[in-house]
Design a protein that fits this description.
38% of the residues lie in helices and 16% in strands. It has helices spanning 14-26, 36-56, 69-83, 99-110, 128-133, 157-167, 235-273, 300-309, 329-334, 352-373, 400-408, 427-438; strands at 63-66, 90-94, 114-118, 139-145, 171-174, 190-194, 205-209, 277-280, 290-295, 341-345, 389-392, 417-422, 441-447, 452-457. The radius of gyration is 24 Å and the shape is globular.
């Protein structure tokens, strides 16, 4: 069964498995002890730290191991904000950061701090000048991911880091998605990553803090990992994480080129074979293995289930697949379609034949789901009567409001409007995105007795 969700968790690398089993035999003792078994464990821990630091591009004494990438993010943000509290309590971050960064920002605000979300363009990238403009005299820390976890867009880390340096603000880079593919651009002050993203075992994160960065670890003091990560080190997992990081980096150049070609094929063929689809993210400045596209008039949850039935494991940022019923904050910030969203992230070793079969299966699955939902069939444009229309889609989840809009847009005259009444949060994103894709004008959102009234003007 083809597994196409490496951005969530990559399959365990063979080197990680070998190192894990070996370390279970050799690295079970306390590395803080001076007897023989402790010294042996300490040698393994030091070697793992040196290997990880080499891949990150920092000194070994600047890097600590945490219990997860999320823990590394929380510890890094909290420690940097506390260490620079005299400067101020303002945090800057991009609008498409991982949820761990957003949760840290929310906790900081709840404790009396403030934060600014820097907007992104339609590809998901920040503008360095705009990011620099968000930095203030009281900004204690800035955060920017190296590459986006949902759409693959690489961020201009070096350019933003230069703006931060000019303002005297340290930059924390979340490198969870990119570290296995190569070093992060220069200029960062703190860096975090997560081993299960590159084929290491789950439960190991990295936190690197450059010398000279003011940092005050939060929580009860600990004796291990420079006091920045409490608890006994999971040494076998740490050894496996470092060994697999070195292994995947040695394979990255060849595998990156091969997977990039497969993703380029997905990007082009999906757009050719599936009507009404939007391929999102930067087509050039992106991770080599990841592509995301959204299909109009499709229920994302049903689409993923149907692909799973055909033995393809993919993920989605659609609100239809989320317990919150709120569209992905990444897609919302980009202003792109969220319904029928599919993220394909290929693990190393993915066979081209599996990608070809996926591309053969996908159009039929999308067509089947659309038919089930009663999606409109493309028809020649008609002049339509002069009267505007109101569509009541209250209580109905996307993509139904968009489907109902598409069904009636041809019934009004060019220049007339269709008003869609909807109370689904996704409609705020998907109706404007539909207008962008279909060449119609989104007039705006107006208050209604229930939900909101989304007004669309027919242009063609």
């Amino acid at each position: 069964m083809p597994y196409f969700d490496a951005a969530s968790a990559a399959p365990l690398h063979p080197v990680a498995r070998q190192a894990l089993l070996a370390a279970l035999d050799e690295g079970w003792a306390d590395p803080a002890r001076l007897y023989r078994e402790g010294r042996r464990a300490r040698l393994l821990l030091d070697a793992a730290r040196e290997a990880a630091a080499e891949a990150v591009g920092c000194r070994p004494d600047e890097l600590v191991f945490t219990s997860s990438g999320t823990t590394a993010v929380h510890a890094g943000i909290a420690g940097a904000l506390s260490g620079r509290r005299r400067v101020g309590r303002h945090l800057a971050l991009s609008a498409v950061e991982h949820s761990s960064v957003l949760h840290s920002a929310a906790a900081h605000e709840a404790a009396g701090g403030s934060f600014t979300e820097v907007p992104v363009d339609r590809t998901g990238a920040v503008d360095p000048a705009v990011y620099g403009g968000a930095l203030r005299a009281d900004t204690a820390l800035a955060c920017l991911q190296s590459a986006n976890h949902e759409v693959g867009t690489e961020q201009p880390v070096a350019e933003v880091a230069a703006r931060c340096a000019d303002a005297g603000v340290p930059l924390l880079v979340d490198a969870a998605q990119s570290l296995g593919w190569g070093p992060v651009q220069e200029g960062w002050s703190l860096l975090t990553a997560s081993a299960h993203k590159w084929g290491g075992p789950a439960g190991v994160g990295l936190l690197a803090v450059r010398k000279g960065v003011r940092f005050a670890a939060q929580g009860p003091a600990g004796e291990r990992e420079s006091g920045r990560a409490a608890g006994f080190e999971n040494l076998p997992a740490i050894v496996a994480a470092a060994a697999s990081l070195r292994a995947v980096r040695s394979e990255a150049a060849a595998e990156s080129g091969r997977l990039r070609a497969l993703v380029d094929r997905i990007r082009s063929v999906v757009a050719e074979r599936v009507p009404d689809v939007e391929v999102v993210g930067d087509p050039v400045r992106r991770l080599p293995h990841l592509v995301t596209f959204s299909c109009l008039y499709v229920d994302g949850e049903t689409l993923l289930h149907e692909l799973d039935r055909r033995e393809f494991s993919v993920s989605s940022g659609s609100s239809c697949t989320s317990s919150t019923l709120v569209p992905s904050h990444v897609l919302r910030a980009m202003g792109v379609l969220s319904e029928g969203n599919v993220r394909v992230s290929l693990p190393p070793g993915t066979a081209g034949a599996d990608v070809d079969r996926f591309l053969e299966v996908l159009p039929g699955v999308v067509a089947e789901v659309r038919e089930r939902l009663g999606a409109p069939v493309p028809a020649p444009a008609s002049p339509g009567p002069a009267a505007s229309l109101v569509v009541d889609a209250l209580g109905r989840r996307c993509p139904v409001p968009v489907i109902e809009l598409a069904k009636v847009i041809g019934e009004v005259a060019v220049g007339a409007t269709v008003t869609v009444l909807a109370d689904d949060e996704a409609a705020r994103l998907d109706i404007p995105a539909w207008c962008e894709m279909r060449g119609q004008e989104y007039v705006g959102e107006e208050p209604a007795d229930r939900g909101s009234a989304h007004v669309v003007r027919r242009l063609s």
